[in-house]
């Protein structure tokens, strides 16, 4: 058994993900199961959400999980074993009004992990996507003019 190790990671900060994955692999030697469960969402009309916020949502919900997965994947492939899980959202399958950036990021993630599943079959690596319906998440009440405070994490 291994003592638990707490490693803080902002999944939307793509630049640090590879270093964190390297730290985990150096500490434990491998990752048997990778569960991608971080997410960020915002509610608002398309015209009221800035492109900056659209990109931040895409970084957290799409680029973050795929960057972490790509960092861990070579180790799983070399061992010919592993399981990768994406906890996504029903909005990765069906978009609803006022959640365009969130739904788009979740659609992209489903597409990526569906392709990955097919590619990893020959290496005996299992790839699963879980698309639950609505989940009560932590939410901060927005201050007027503060878009960042309207983000759900």
UniProtKB/TrEMBL annotation:
GO terms for molecular function: oxidoreductase activity, acting on the CH-OH group of donors, NAD or NADP as acceptor. This is Dehydrogenase/reductase SDR family member 7C. Belongs to the short-chain dehydrogenases/reductases (SDR) family. Keywords: NAD, NADP, Oxidoreductase, Signal. The lineage of its organism: Eukaryota, Metazoa, Chordata, Craniata, Vertebrata. GO terms for biological process: intracellular calcium ion homeostasis. It comes from Dasyornis broadbenti (rufous bristle-bird). It comes from the Eukaryota.
